[in-house]
From TrEMBL:
Residues 20-433 form the Major facilitator superfamily (MFS) profile domain. One of its GO terms (molecular function) is symporter activity. The lineage of its organism: Bacteria, Bacillati, Actinomycetota, Actinomycetes, Kitasatosporales. Keywords: Cell membrane, Membrane, Symport, Transmembrane, Transmembrane helix, Transport. It is found in: Cell membrane. CDD domains: MFS_ShiA_like. May be a proton symporter involved in the uptake of osmolytes such as proline and glycine betaine. The keyword NAD does not apply. Its main location: membrane. Gene3D superfamilies: MFS general substrate transporter like domains. This is Putative proline/betaine transporter. Pfam families: MFS_1 (PF07690).
Length: 448
């Protein structure tokens, strides 16, 4: 018996639900393309372009610091877009978030480097990274809600998983464009100026995404909240009434997935090329292959969650991530390509087990009329505490010790805390009966 809340009861047709799912997948793919493109460039290019006077280690730290800035900005975007998403609707805010992300990424491709304008080059880079962060801060929770709130009965986890697929899809797209541009231009030309091409392509990709996103209808759940006069003036304040204990445990439960994912996706590129002498192309292809597996397995795991319940699956996935973090760097450190590929692909197999349902778990913490604000707060705080700081902390630990052992213990510690948080959260919230975020049944809607 699934522990998912009852279906929305909105009467939305499967065609509209499917169109919305595809639109949210397309939008999140494009936004994550922009975000991961920056992460890859930060690991491999930006230290030379924007911090050339620093040592290699300090330059990498500086580049990862600008990467972290985007995460610092994400809660601001989450708060702003969450507020208006609960007051004026999901669709309009998601259109604006996509535009912000596209404009920020396109302009990054046009920023002069340090040799051209000195100090102002990293300043402009940071400002545009803030724009990226604000845009993505409004995307994650809103896209999950938009798809989940259109879902047919019994398929809430499946539909909430479509926007989650945008994370690995965006990474695959970013890496394919990055590698293709590098191969065509050559290493020297790519490092000099051709790295800008993938960022400039964001303008075209976002235009396509907007055409898809503008065709979807507003969330039936939000429309019903408007009809029943449930829209509140300060939705975030209302969302906090869920209680700080539950909010804290939900936040703790999702931190590990973000931390592990960003060490795997971003820090590994820098560590593998500079410390282990792996070829850049090999590592990017390995991460890309793992991301394809990540993408392809999300529908399977979300169907499992809809059929059997997501709690046991989430806890089991949390244990698996912890165990693989113990093995990940030792496998990389063998300097054997086959074992390194196993380490990377293993992450692609394990990460989606918890990633695919965490958006739905967060959403079901809050009532419908304040769900965007509450979900954005938890999602973005989890992202900054987990993913935003992970490459920076990992680089600092590596510089301090000269070994990846500290990074391994850091990841194991974060995973253990998240596992404890998930177990405590699921004990706190009864498995049977409606969750606080569950929509009223269709019969009740008809009588109001």
């Amino acid at each position: 018996m699934s522990n998912s809340p009852p279906a929305d009861g909105t009467g939305t047709g499967r065609t509209a639900a499917g169109r919305t799912a595809v639109a949210t997948l397309a939008g999140t793919t494009l936004e994550w393309y922009d975000f991961f493109l920056y992460g890859t460039a930060a690991a491999l290019i930006f230290d030379k372009q924007f911090f050339p006077s620093l040592s290699p280690g300090a330059g990498t730290l500086a580049a990862f610091s600008t990467f972290a800035v985007g995460f610092v900005a994400r809660p601001l975007g989450g708060l702003v877009f969450g507020h208006f998403g609960d007051r004026i609707g999901r669709k309009a805010t998601l259109v604006v978030s996509l535009l912000l992300m596209g404009v920020g990424s396109t302009l990054i491709g046009a920023v002069p480097n340090y040799d051209a304008i000195g100090f102002w080059a990293p300043v402009l880079l940071v400002l545009l990274r803030v724009v990226q962060g604000i845009g993505l801060g409004g995307e994650g929770a809103g896209a999950t809600l938009m798809s989940m709130e259109h879902a047919p009965a019994g398929k809430r986890n499946l539909y909430a998983g479509f926007p989650q697929m945008g994370t690995p899809a965006g990474l695959v797209l970013a890496n394919v464009v990055f590698l293709t541009t590098n191969s065509v231009a050559g290493d020297a030309t790519f490092t000099s100026w051709a790295w800008r091409i993938p960022f400039l392509l964001s303008f075209v990709l976002v235009a396509v995404g907007l055409l898809v996103r503008l065709r979807v209808t507003e969330s039936p759940s939000f429309n019903r909240a408007v009809e029943q006069d449930e829209v509140v003036r300060f939705p975030l304040a209302e969302a906090l009434r869920v209680g700080y204990r539950r909010l804290g445990l939900t936040l703790l439960a999702v931190v590990a997935n973000s931390a592990v994912a960003y060490v795997f996706l971003v820090f590994t590129l820098s560590y593998g090329t500079k410390e282990l002498d792996y070829k850049k192309k090999f590592l990017i292809l390995g991460v890309t292959a793992a991301s394809v597996i990540w993408f392809a397995t999300i529908p399977f795991w979300t169907k499992v969650a809809d059929r059997y319940g997501r709690r046991t699956m989430f806890v089991g996935g949390s244990v698996a991530i912890l165990a693989w973090c113990v093995a990940f760097f030792p496998l990389l450190n063998t300097n054997r390509s086959l074992l390194a590929l196993l380490a990377l692909v293993g992450m692609g197999v394990i990460i989606p087990v918890t990633h695919c349902v965490q958006g739905a778990i967060i959403a079901d913490t809050f009532p419908i009329h304040v769900r965007y604000s509450g979900s954005s707060l938890i999602l973005q705080l989890g992202a900054i505490l987990g993913g935003g700081l992970a490459p920076l902390i990992s680089t600092a630990l590596l510089d301090a010790s000269g070994s990846s052992t500290g990074v391994t213990w850091y990841l194991v510690g974060v995973c253990a805390l998240s596992l404890a948080g998930a177990v405590a959260l699921f004990r706190l919230v009864p498995e049977k009966g409606p969750e606080p975020a569950a929509e009223p049944p269709a019969q009740a809607v008809a009588r109001t």
